[in-house]
Write a structure and sequence with these properties.
- The protein has six helices and eleven strands.
- The chain is of the alpha/beta class.
- β1, α1 and β2 form a beta-alpha-beta unit.
- The C terminus is likely disordered.
Length: 226
């Protein structure tokens, strides 16, 4: 997808460098994040994990400033209420954001909703927290939730009903030196692959989704029903 003219949509981008990298490849990017008041109340502003405009998104100089300005626009978006006009994208992504929507239910609702942002053949890549401690108990509500293996499998089934293919879930967690480091609040370790969230050991998990040509959007279903 990283070729000139491809359209990408990023959710809760914070100050990540991906936007500048994608723009450097010639992609047309819509970068989104929460409104400043909500982000400040949650704490994202104090930790430099929030953006209010394009000035935060190319600070490493990855992309030529003129190219960046031509290829990127910023929009305030709450992932719990994605605007209907955000559609027709070749790719969509988020980096460890879907677990911060208030509940596992809202996280899964977002994943179903974001499918409508993709054009047929489009690809979505999301990372989230994965529970290494339990497949029964987890954090299901609050500022940070943790997906269990069963939750991820449920998500695959829901996305299949939306006309999507999800790449096979890889539950191998690794046993290298970096994998064995466990970070705890206030999270200061480097590497930072496994961390404690409350009583649960977690790590990052990647989900890759392709919208098939025969997928039906929620808006189309509503129109047909009407």
């Amino acid at each position: 997808m990283l070729t000139a003219g491809k359209r990408g949509l990023g959710f809760a981008v914070g100050q990540e460098p991906l936007i500048a990298l994608f723009a450097k490849h010639g992609c047309e990017i819509v970068a989104t994040d929460l409104d400043i008041d909500t982000a400040r109340a949650i704490g994202w502003v104090n930790t430099n994990e929030h953006s209010t405009d394009l000035s935060h998104l190319n600070t490493r100089g990855i992309c030529d400033p003129r190219v960046f300005e031509d290829h990127v626009r910023f929009q305030v978006v709450d992932m719990r209420h994605v605007p209907t006009e955000l559609e027709g994208f070749d790719f969509v992504w988020s980096s460890c954001a879907i677990e911060h929507l208030g509940s596992l239910e809202k996280s899964i609702e977002f994943m179903e909703r974001m499918v409508d942002c993709l054009k047929p053949g489009g690809v979505a890549v999301h990372t989230t927290e994965y529970n290494l401690s339990s497949d029964t108990d987890t954090l299901v509500d609050g500022n940070s939730v943790i997906f269990r293996k069963s939750d991820l499998r449920e998500l695959v089934e829901k996305l299949a009903k939306k006309g999507c293919r999800v790449e096979p879930l890889d539950f191998e967690v690794g046993q290298g030196p970096a994998d064995l480091v466990v970070d705890e609040p206030p999270y200061t370790h480097d590497p930072h692959l496994r961390l404690m969230i409350g009583p649960y050991l977690s790590t990052s998990f990647g989900i890759i989704v392709t919208k098939l040509d025969n997928a039906v959007s929620d808006s189309s279903m509503t129109a047909s029903a009407g």
